[in-house]
Amino acid sequence: MVQLERHDNAVTILLTPNRSITWVQAKWIIAFMIAVVMIIAIAWTFVGAWMILPFAGLEAGLFAYLMYKVTRFTYLKQIVTFTEQEITIEMGIDRQQSAESLPRFGTDIYYSETDLNWHTPKITLHNGRQRVQIGQFLNADDMVLLRNELENLGLLICRQHWWKNKD
Description:
The chain is 36% helix and 28% strand. The model has no long low-confidence stretch (mean pLDDT 90). Strand 1 (2-6) and strand 2 form a beta hairpin. It is an alpha+beta fold. Helix 1 packs antiparallel against helix 2 (52-73). The chain contains 3 helices and 9 strands; from the N terminus they run ββααββββββαβ.
């Protein structure tokens, strides 16, 4: 998702991945899946196939761990702030985990796409010394929206396939 906020002398773009499930819904799915797996494993244990129980526990634990990691990743935020002097990129989940700062003058914005549009386009800020990719977790439609927002701000976008239509 791409959200643009204008301040007195700065423009902030908030980038977040699309979230199809909330953390509460994910916890319900985890609990339901663990309950189903454990009911089946306990039923097989009563029949005499007790060796299924550790593998069922491993399956339930792995499912819960992976579901947690995927759901947590959907809460990632990237905040890109454009001022007259610099461009600041902050990224993190729940708190700022990394921050990069580039000078506004001399920083180019590159929009790269594949030949047949099989992959999501990439937007990279590059000033000769540093190269920072923004919005790497966005889908293709949101990347086009981000590119359009950057163009509306008056920033020059360098396109790898300049001869193609923009959309």
